[in-house]
Amino acid sequence: MIFLFWRKITQQSSPFPWIQLLRKLRLSTFRRFPTSQAPQFLFPAPILQQFLPKTMTRHLNTYQHPEIRRSVEHFNVLIDGYCRNGEISRAVELLEGMKTEGPAPDIVTYNTLMNGFCKIGDLFTAKKLMGEILLVNLEPNVITYTTLIDAYCKSQCLEDALNMYDEMTVKGLVPDVVTYTCIMNGLCKSGKVEEAKSVFREMEEVGVVPNHFSYATLIDSLSKEGNVAEAFVLQGRMVVRGIGFDVVVYTALMDGLFKAGMANNAEDMFQVLLEESLVPNCVTYSALIDGHCKLGDVKKGELLLQEMEEKHILPNVIVYSSIVDGYTKKGLLNEAMDVMRKMVQRNILPNVFVYGTLIDGYFKADQQGIALDLFKEMKSRGLEENNFVIDSFVNNLKRSGRMEEADELFKDMMSRGLLPDRVNYTSMMDGFFKAGKESDAFNIAQEMTEKSSGFDVVAYNVLINGLFKLGKYESESFHTGMRQLGLAPDSATFNTMINAYCKEGNLENALKLLNEMKSYGLKPNSITCNILVQRLCAAGEIEKTMDLLNDMLVMGFHPTPTTHKAVLDASSKSRRADVILHIHDQLVGMGLKLDLSTYNTLIGTFCRLGMIRRATLVFKDMMGKGILADIITYNALIHGYCISSHLKKAFAVHSQMLTEGVSPNVETYNILLRGLSAARLIKEATGLVNQMKERGLVPNATTYDILVSGHGKIGNMKECVKLYCEMITKGFVPKTRTYNVLISCFAKGKKMSQAKELMQEMQVRGIPPNSSTYDILICGWYKLSKQPELSKSLKRSYQAEAKRLFEEMNEKGFIPCENTLACISFTLAKPGKKADAQRILNKLYKKNVK
């Protein structure tokens, strides 16, 4: 009868056919039964639940006729409707009416209302209903407990959820698949994937068959932590059980493949998804875009964003934030800002993470103004800074050594109720250690142990590194401390300790730690190896280095370009080409990739040693293998020819690189200028600078240093001063050797007052004078004092200045050259007073002569 009514009513034009259906049903019922004999059901509750749209539950009270006796099932449907529509107060009113007027609520009534309160996040009232259930002599069932467990897990109250689980099992209730899946989801959300796997195994052992959601929950969490192999094992078990995959499972697996660096496999998985006729959603594309961006392929991410828009899939803020993060990590801040502006144009407002990413990027790029403007913009949008944004500010202040300001910001953050997380504490501790404020660092460490954040292995590594810098090398105590905190050392822990021992020169302990690292099941990585290689090489232990590399080869490590450079630098001390080539061949035999970087290191080593013929042979071998030279290759060859005084050949290489389409950089011209300067070909050097400017290259501080030095060698003081003024105007800070050239020019011209002013200017600019600076000035003052036309008072004055400089030089630990000592002896040693001159020298200078 109901079906016929439904068909009839739905053919009418009324926007609410179900209202008319109810009205007709009620009228027909009244006609067929007297009031005193009214039926117990107006109509079956399941049909009511099926046909009533949840958005229309506000009309249900219209059909509560006072003379119609209804069952508890009827009320349960009404309460469910109100809860679904968000009208929880109306549902509570119905419950109260049931308690006073009947029918008495049953466990389903309470479960339904409890679920309603859980959905709106009112766990306190939901828990109170549990107490009420017991007061009315009803027994909570599996659904009652599962409802609360699910709500606690979603509210990140895992401990409460587990207590509920224990309570239900003590009462003899058997958890069902939904209960187990809720617990697994809570554990996974708290990062306790191993415990979630244990729950999954327990579920299977007690005979509860996992459903799609059970598998999807665990696959998603395993994928997120990069354990993609285990995730695929679970996928295989889904196939065996005949449980189909949906977009959620495919998306999770794709995400895991990206995190494992397997971009091609992730793309293949996406194609399988399409072949299965599944429709990718925003979350699927978000995983694809985030995966490509994190692997550095941001352009691919933008193409996928364009594909989303073409398919009318609306991107969300997470999609855009992945692209912003990708560009920022590559240092392409303008592109990242363009993406954020595009978001705003499309009415997708950036969140705190987007702003935080850009603020952090601009701080790292030393563009504090833009970073602060972005922070103000974020605040103007009503967004409050979070721990990530605070950490960006702390790190910026830390980089510039402004830990007092960082500490003030940290305290202000806490005063406003924003609790520091483990990352914030770790950044502060690291900053204090780097600023040499160990007591403040230890205070932060103490505070961390007292707070709920606690230590993780990263924070502990920072503590170890700080203690090692203070000279505390008790590695055993560190291991004990980590064990007490339930932490296991990672590769970074051992790298920190190995590096500290290496810097101390304690290679024996460093190598012991390497063996200990293996005992923890940790494989030494390229960082570990390169630390040891560099230190062994610095100590001249080439044989031990090669032994270490052979051991590492067994563990699957192959030499990297960093290893290659360190070993060749060490072997070059022998200045024997055959030794260098032998070491190089050994490294290639160990799996060193013979690419452009490797060839550049070998060519650069030979060129630096002036072995230009050997370098040329290697260059020809490289070209013969089809490996094209780059700017590094050509600069090395030009440098080799210049230091070998083959300027024509150096310029020939310069011409060759232009022919090959390789554009010279500022360093190329500086190398050539240095060669011309050494050969005193200053006119040619000036022409080369003009050529450099014509190519759009701007001279840097090194360029000016070279030019000043060149003009100084030929005594062109006027041009030296002109170039010096030009570099100061452009904001360049001259180096000590540049000042020495200028001071020497003035000293030769007997203009010692100007020479003295230059030294004072050096000190104002924070440029430290070296031994040569003092040698030039001391000799200059003494030579000036020997002029016959000078008055005695001036001579004494000049000699006093020379003596003052000599004492200052001695206090700073500089050793004067023989020319300076000879100058002093000649000036002071008058006839018959050579013994007195020697006595003065012995008094002023008590160190060995250079």
Keywords:
single chain, mainly alpha, Serine Threonine Protein Phosphatase 5, Tetratricopeptide repeat, elongated, PPR_rpt, repeat, TPR-like_helical_dom_sf, Pentatricopeptide repeat-containing protein
Brief synopsis:
With 850 residues, this protein is mainly α.
Provide the structure class. Answer: mainly alpha
In percent, how helical is the residue content?
over 70%
Strand residue percentage: under 5%
Number of helices: 47
Detail the poorly predicted runs.
Answer: 1-43, 53-63
Number of distinct beta strands: 0
- Report the CATH topology name of the domain at 665-769: Serine Threonine Protein Phosphatase 5, Tetratricopeptide repeat
For CATH, the homologous superfamily of the domain at 665-769 is named as Tetratricopeptide repeat domain
CATH class designation of the domain at 665-769: Mainly Alpha
Biggest beta sheet summary: none
Distance between the termini: 117 Å
- How much is the radius of gyration in Å? 40 Å
Overall mean confidence score, pLDDT = 81
- The CATH architecture category of the domain at 665-769 equals Alpha Horseshoe
Shape: elongated
Detail the topology: elements first, then pairings:
Elements: H1 2-10, H2 17-32, H3 45-51, H4 72-84, H5 88-101, H6 107-119, H7 123-135, H8 142-154, H9 158-170, H10 177-189, H11 193-205, H12 212-224, H13 228-241, H14 247-259, H15 263-275, H16 282-294, H17 298-310, H18 317-329, H19 333-345, H20 352-364, H21 368-380, H22 387-399, H23 403-415, H24 422-434, H25 438-450, H26 457-469, H27 475-484, H28 491-504, H29 507-519, H30 526-538, H31 542-554, H32 561-571, H33 577-589, H34 596-608, H35 612-624, H36 631-643, H37 647-659, H38 666-678, H39 682-694, H40 701-713, H41 717-729, H42 736-748, H43 752-765, H44 771-785, H45 792-811, H46 818-828, H47 834-844
Helix pairs in contact: 1-2, 3-4, 4-5, 4-6, 5-6, 6-7, 6-8, 7-8, 8-9, 8-10, 9-10, 10-11, 10-12, 11-12, 12-13, 12-14, 13-14, 14-15, 14-16, 16-17, 16-18, 17-18, 18-19, 18-20, 19-20, 20-21, 20-22, 22-23, 22-24, 23-24, 24-25, 24-26, 26-28, 28-29, 28-30, 29-30, 30-31, 30-32, 32-33, 32-34, ...
PPR repeats: 71-105, 106-140, 141-175, 176-210, 211-245, 246-280, 281-315, 316-350, 351-385, 386-420, 421-451, 456-489, 490-524, 525-559, 595-629, 630-664, 665-699, 700-734, 735-769
Keywords: Repeat
Family: Belongs to the PPR family. P subfamily.
